[in-house]
Amino acid sequence: MNGKVKLLIGAVGLATVATGIYLGKKTLPELSNYKRTTIPSALNTDSIFSCPHSDEQSLGWPLLEDRPESITFVKAKNMKQAKQYAAKNLRIYNFDLGNDLELANYVNEGLTNIYNKYKGKTPMPQNIALDLNDKAEAYYDDKTDTLLFNSEGLSRLVTKKRVSDNIERIKKHPDAYGAILTKLDEFTKNPNAFDRFDCLDLYDMIVDIECLNHRKKFYPNDTYMEPGLTSGSKFGLVYHEYGHVLYYKIIGDSKRLKSLVADMEKSGTNNIRCKVSCYASKNLHEFIAETFRALMNGKKVPKDVMELYKKYNGPQMP
C-alpha cells in the first residue's frame, strides 16, 4: 500500500483508508540536508541515520554515533521547547504541530519511549506535521517520511462523551476484564484527570471488547479469546504509526512490499491476525503496526501471531 496508511476510529470499530499522497494545505519543507535511508534487516540498525545536522557540534549536542542509549523525556512548556526537544534528542528537525502543545508533548514522549526501547538504535521519521484536512487521527506518508497528526480529529473523534456513552454497556459485558473496569471506574470518579490520549486508550479498550465478540462469532473453535493486546498505553497511536515507519524502512523495496501484501491477502490468516485486534486483520500493514504496538505495550503475544509477524519481517523488539 504505497502512499499513506491511516488510522480511523468508527462508531464501534476500526477502518482503514488508503489513497495517494495527500497533505491537504500543508506543504512540507525541503529536505535538502537529508537523504532517505533504509534498514537492510529488522535486526541491523547500526547504520540507519542520515547525515547529522551541521550545527549539532556547535550546539554541544552529541553526534548521532555518540547518542546515549536512553534519554529522559522532559515535558515542554511551549512549542519552541517541544521543537528543540525533537531536534536535539530525536533528530527530527521538521517538527510542526501548530500550537497544540499537548499533542507535541504526547508525540515526543511516545517516540522517546521507542528510542529508549531500542537504545537509540532505531530511525525516526524525518518530519512530524499536521494534517487538519484529513479524517484520520494520524498516518504515515512513506513518500516523504512524515508522520502526520490531526489534532482536531483527535479532539473530535475520541471524546469523553463517547467514553461516557459506553460505560454502563461495557461494565455489564461478560468479557469486560479487570484493566478496563478499573479504568472505567477511575474515569467515572474523575473524568477531568483523563486527557484526550487517556480517552483514546480507554476507547481502544472498548473496541477490544467489540473485537472479542467478532472473534467468538467467526472463530468459535479458537482457544485464544483474550482482549486487550493493543490497549493499555496512551501512546498506542504513536506506537502503531511508528510500526508503519519502521516496517517501510525495513522492507525498503516497494515491489517486495506489494508482493508481501498480496501474499498475506491469500494466506488465510485472518483468525490469527484477529487475536491482535480486528484492525490487524485488515491487511499486512495494519497487522504489522498493531502487533508492533502490542509488543511496545509489553503484552505477551500468542505464539502463532509472533510466527506470522516474523514470517513477514515485522520489526523485532531488542
How would you explain this protein's 3D organization?
With 318 residues, the chain is an alpha/beta fold. The chain has a single domain, classed as Collagenase (Catalytic Domain) (3-Layer(aba) Sandwich). The protein has 12 helices and 7 strands. Strands 1, 2, 3, 4, 5, 6 and 7 form a 7-stranded mixed sheet that branches. A hairpin with a 4-residue loop joins strand 1 and strand 2. The longest helix is centred in the middle third of the chain and has 23 residues. The N terminus is likely disordered.
Find the count of extended strands (DSSP E, 2+ residues).
Answer: 7
Q: Overall pLDDT, averaged?
A: 80
In CATH terms, what is the architecture?
3-Layer(aba) Sandwich
Content of β-strand: 5-15%
Poorly predicted parts: 1-55
Element string (H = helix, E = strand):
EEEHHEHEEEHHHHHHHHH
Specify the helix fraction band.
40-55%
Protein structure class: alpha/beta
